[in-house]
Design brief:
146 residues; tRNA_aden_deaminase (chains A, B); CMP_dCMP_dom (chains A, B); 43% helix; alpha/beta; globular; five-stranded mixed sheet; zinc ion binding (chains A, B); homodimer; 5 strands; Cytidine Deaminase, domain 2
């Protein structure tokens, strides 16, 4: 039997969250956190609505997952996020010791790789899943803004 | 007339917050954010109590200040924090475009300088204010934990 729970499957869920952000006038980044094929947190960027630079999708997903799990370490968890995390989010993910991060589009200027941030040595990193869809949503957003 | 509102004055307030964290069994880091000699946010590390790796003193102070100011950019604000910010907090401070950061003790291993994080080019950085007092509180905490 084919496994439906692929990286693409969960990235689609993150992309749905990003679309909600888009519709709300937020930079369209969405995230889900998954344990054993179960989504335990869904979130999207809320920096405008909350007037808070810390309200990135990943930050909310980390807090929600820790709350769900009853512990602050996200061992065994996978984050799916439509955009490469920034250094703040990479730093939070570092502290969480999350097992795996999967992101869609790269962020050449503000992504953690360009900014010099570090992930935890225990964290596996996968990039480029549904990259075009994730990047297109960002481009559409900034095109409308202009 | 002597100006009582020195960096030491506000670092003492941050240190008082760190002492509250200490008494609660939290890694003793405290912070205040100041605008025109007025403290608009006070916070201390709450990662254990909240079971949340994102609950560093700086993160809470950023969110509280943005809430107080009614906008997410902390222009004209100074953060006083007893320990060098980590890459997560440096990343949040980057997004906030805060005008000045003053920290007490250095964090050789997990500070943003060792981890490779970046501050905003508009942000002035001052370090070593009340360094001994800030570092001693940390050392006392980890000595007790052992």
């Amino acid at each position: 039997m084919e496994n439906i729970f692929t990286d693409e499957y969960f990235m689609k869920k993150a992309l749905q969250e990003a679309e909600v952000a888009f519709d709300r006038g937020e930079i369209p980044v969405g995230a889900v956190i998954v344990v054993e094929n179960r989504i335990i947190a869904r979130s999207h960027n809320l920096t405008e609505m909350l007037n808070d630079v810390t309200a990135h999708a990943e930050m909310q997903a980390i807090t929600a997952s820790a709350n769900f799990l009853g512990g602050k370490y996200l061992k065994g968890c996978t984050l799916y996020v439509t955009l490469e995390p920034c250094q703040m989010c990479a730093g939070a993910l570092y502290w969480s010791q999350i097992s795996k991060i999967v992101y869609g589009a790269s962020d050449e200027h503000r992504g953690f790789r360009a900014m010099g941030g570090k992930l935890h040595p225990k964290t596996e990193l996968v990039s480029g899943i549904m990259e075009n869809e994730c990047a297109t949503l960002m481009k559409d957003f900034f095109r409308r803004k202009r």
